[in-house]
Amino acid sequence: MATTAAAPTLRSWAAPAVPSLRGAGIADGRVSFRGAQWRVSSPMYVLGCRAVMSAENRDVSLASSELERGKQNEGEFSHSGGEQRRRVGRGSRLVGSGSAVPKTLISNEELSKFVETSDEWISVRTGIRNRRVLGEGDTVTTLSVEASRKALEMANVKPEEVDLLLLCTSTPDDLFGSAPQVQKLLGCHNALAFDLTAACSGFVLGLVTATRFIRGGGYKNVLVVGADALSRYVDWTDRGTCILFGDASGALLLQAATDDQDSLLGFDLRSDGNGQKHLHVKIDNEEDPSPSGAESNGSAFKKPGKASYECLQMNGKEVFRFAVRAVPQVVEGALQEAGLSSENIDWLLLHQANQRILDSVSDRLHIPAEKVISNLANYGNTSAASIPLALDEAVRSGKVKAGDVVATAGFGAGLTWGSAIVKWG
Ligand code: ACO
After folding, report:
1. Is 10 among the domain residues?
2. Distance 104 CA to ligand 1 centre (A)
3. Residues of the chain falling short of pLDDT 50
4. 120 and 46 housed in the same domain
5. For residue 134, which of 80, 104, 116, 138 is within the disulfide window of CB 3.0 to 4.6 Å?
């Protein structure tokens, strides 16, 4: 893997006020985003590109021969994508969670053996003490299968009952996406599965995306998985970045529910490519050493070199400033959309990047420290996995209870950031 020595720019970058896509919701068959409306009453639902049914007829049964053809045998590729299950549901409930981390643990002491750092520096500046990194046999896919199995078990949902699997990751095991592999290994024969890439904001974006499939598409059971293995992309000789990251996967099962049971109370999602210079993993195109086409065979075509990725580059100070300014804004935006204020929050669950960011954002929002969920001491920054991993731990330990309101917020590369206010259970 190539590393770049490009010095990060120190020019200060201010998150601009950009139009937000917030609080989109359906009222009387109408999806409304600020200033624009799309009517969705009586939409047509397309099943596996073959069968079509109207919104009024969502429970219409497919002919049994169609269903037979759609069934998928284990290990076999089926063009139809399996039996399609579509049910009515406008709200979404969070009914299951699960998580998985690799066994390999790297403590701050261990890190200080190969970069010039100390447990004191890392824990004081970041709050991180340990992180897990992929070991033998671990992949983003295997961790995601384990996390998803636990979420399905908690939700009491069978793999074949899953309609959609969203894998939020920026580090898939296959450039083309790992979601279908997770789907295959889980046995979710009837699900559509695809990846969603938005770095550390990925899970919040995936969560909101999943609710739109339930609300507008009639999907019933949706698995949203956040998983990353940034250990593959950090420069392990760069003490400014390698101390921060860990690998993990976390999953939530969302289930269609009535409007009054809806768990998504409000959201505010944003992005701005102007900030990319502060945090990126860029593609690195090698020069093709072979003679150019014109020299070898007369063709003007010069083959592109084989691509790989550079190591993660970050201007930590700028990302820190961005996070403490932009995150409170989106949490407030999402709360406003939900008709709530910060006093109504039971838990603040931010992307677990740095304890000082968590402290600063909660101070700005006047949320007391005892309501802030934090587990980054054990896992570091696990990118898209950090929110579902922390939520799963909090649910399983009995901290987060049914009916609790959790304000989540992700932020990171892109730059992307966003908040979703959700109710557990
Ligand atoms: N150990 C010891 N010293 C170190 C280390 C280390 N691991 N890293 C840096 N230093 C030194 C620096 O060289 C510098 O020394 P100098 O003063 O002699 O030049 C000094 O410590 C201060 O370095 P800074 O980089 O200014 O330290 P800072 O207080 O900004 O902390 C940190 C760095 C922890 C990275 C912080 O900026 C941060 O957390 N930023 C936010 C990162 C983040 O949230 N990313 C989220 C998105 S991730 C994603 O989307 C994939």
Report:
1. no
2. 24
3. 1-74, 85-87
4. no
5. 138
